[in-house]
Amino acid sequence: MDLLPNSEPLATKLQNALIQYHSIGDSEWRIAKKTKDATVWRKPSEEFSGYLYKAQGVVEDVTNRIVDHIRPGPYRLDWDSLMTTMDIIETFEENCCVMRYTTAGQLWNIIAPREFVDFSYTTSYENGLLTCGISLDYGEVRPNFVRGFNHPCGWFCVPLKDYPSHSLLTGYIQTELRGMLPQSAVDTAMASTLTNFYSDLKKALKT
């Protein structure tokens, strides 16, 4: 049986990686997709041969409520159309856990269902919150799933200065889907997944 990592050093390393992504200058990003809800950019990842994606949009709600819908917990499965199952395997503290989740097939099942085991950590950031995660090579892969791998990823959520009831939500995602996939299919799926994430989240927060 694989051993789960020591949570404190992993949480610190993860948080530092996300803060570094958050400081990358605008000139390094190339736009991938824009909708009324969000804009998605990308740049080559330093972790693997794919891309690091950045997504950003304003969400009409307070920071704590938004992050409660994103991080592992009872809300996420209800509204995230890509996620099909989620189990929390281990809880280290209230803000720190390991979860196993599965995602639906995409692009008419060119991308088959995926399974991930992620370490997740939520902490304060400036006057808002950061919820972030990284995949672990842990446990057996379920039948009929391909095990994907999330390199450091996360969501910064901070209140807008002049409209504290609205929040700026900025995500950094670099998912290695693995399996035999054309890169163009992965790129199309990632940009659409991120813009759909914002529209699904906004709908969920209104209910």
From TrEMBL:
<dbReference type="GO" id="GO:0032367">
    <property type="term" value="P:intracellular cholesterol transport"/>
</dbReference>
<dbReference type="GO" id="GO:0005829">
    <property type="term" value="C:cytosol"/>
</dbReference>
<dbReference type="InterPro" id="IPR042555">
    <property type="entry name" value="StarD4"/>
</dbReference>
<dbReference type="GO" id="GO:0120020">
    <property type="term" value="F:cholesterol transfer activity"/>
</dbReference>
<dbReference type="GO" id="GO:0005783">
    <property type="term" value="C:endoplasmic reticulum"/>
</dbReference>
<protein>
    <submittedName>
        <fullName>StAR-related lipid transfer protein 4</fullName>
    </submittedName>
</protein>
<dbReference type="GO" id="GO:0010879">
    <property type="term" value="P:cholesterol transport involved in cholesterol storage"/>
</dbReference>
<feature type="domain" description="START">
    <location>
        <begin position="10"/>
        <end position="207"/>
    </location>
</feature>
<dbReference type="InterPro" id="IPR002913">
    <property type="entry name" value="START_lipid-bd_dom"/>
</dbReference>
<dbReference type="GO" id="GO:0015485">
    <property type="term" value="F:cholesterol binding"/>
</dbReference>
<dbReference type="Pfam" id="PF01852">
    <property type="entry name" value="START"/>
</dbReference>
<dbReference type="GO" id="GO:0070508">
    <property type="term" value="P:cholesterol import"/>
</dbReference>
<dbReference type="InterPro" id="IPR023393">
    <property type="entry name" value="START-like_dom_sf"/>
</dbReference>
